[in-house]
Amino acid sequence: MSTKETLWKGRSEGKLHPLLIKIGESISLDIKLYREDLKGSYAHAKMLKNIGLLSDEEAHQILDGLKKIQKEIENQEFPLFPELEDIHTHVENRLKELIGPIAGKLHTARSRNDQIAVDTHLFVKKVSFEILNSLYRLCEVIVSRSEELMDVIMPSYTHLQVAQPVRMSHYLMSYFWMFLRDIERMMFAYQQADRLPLGVGAVAGVNYENDREFLRKELGFSDFYENSMDAVSSRDHIFNLLYAVAMISLHLSRLCEELILYSSVEFNFLEFPDELTTGSSLMPQKKNLDLAELIRAKSGRLISNLNTLMIVMKALPLTYNRDLQEDRKPLLESEEVIDLIEATILLISHFKVKEKNLENSLHQGFATATDLADALVVEGNLPFREAHHIVGMLVRICVEKSYHLGNIPKEIRSQIHPLLGNDEFYFRAIDLKLSTEKKKSRGGTSLSRVKEQIQLAKKRLTEIKSQLPEKPNLDLD
Fold it and tell me: Is 1's pLDDT higher than 80?
């Protein structure tokens, strides 16, 4: 008789239709949770020994068997059987093969319901820790490149049309603050997962004086679930992770879209090294930023995972329902965001800037037109609407005659308004770097404000570094 049959025999015969086995198995996914599952079982066995439900010898055999199973999995010597459904049953089945009936005692005072709950909580903590460290490095790289590119001026955009000049460091730092908020969200996800669900059984608690405080310390949790029904049915810890991952993915996708645009022939602002690009099997001239395109595409799936699990859970009654098995795929896929962050670190670290093309775009987009209108208001004592109209006329003539603000002849400028014929006034008003220096409000793109912003960013990174959680210990010891 198989272990699978043994698990189900009682009310039913224990024989399942092959399609139910196919649809019901999760081992193809949750084999990735083997370290978390073994860690939970290891702690549970030690607790059972402490409260007298396992003898020293029985505990020794179980603990030794769990270590052997871990080695088998890591050496790819651990076969997977769909009829055994999940990682828990596989471990129990193999443990019985290794040490005999004593293995069955491991499941005393425990259900697969609180078992999968502790597995996923440990996984969320582990993945949150790893994502946090990748995000931290990304933020460091952005700050470093912002300092390097402090004096580079580029166009900003609204409606994807040239708006006003900004420092490239100001542009990059806009993403720093997005990713810093992502760090804050991910730290919240870690903290919310840092409570112990194990020890509450299937739904109502267990009929033993178990030691959940021992389990909490042994598994490295800082808090408990205080209600057994909440502990086995809640997936809030996964939702918090998925939401944080969705926001990271959204930010990465927006950044990568711009890197793709800015490296295209039409923009031609940035250049990436060959090792981060691909060619075409047909067109020899192509240099595609596929890495950014893949990040942009994969982010969509990670964003959708949040909605997927919300739909699964939106009408579930308490407590455990088999629907909750569908938490596995979104949860495990969340780990992929680490590769996307690391790839973005490469992209940010290695692009080269084509400053002449940035300047040309600023001129062609009449990026300092607003500065010129403001100068007419201040020095010409004109109402802003009148100044706006005057500069609009100037821009229209530039477009018609293929000029930009920097090369339209003085005699044409003078005809529109006498003050525009004053070269000292005019060229000071449309100077690209001076335009950025006028933006002195906090959060603006002037040199002093960008330096202030970067110093604040460094301070925040230092503070956050001291707050980052320790790596969860999944070793069997």
Answer: no
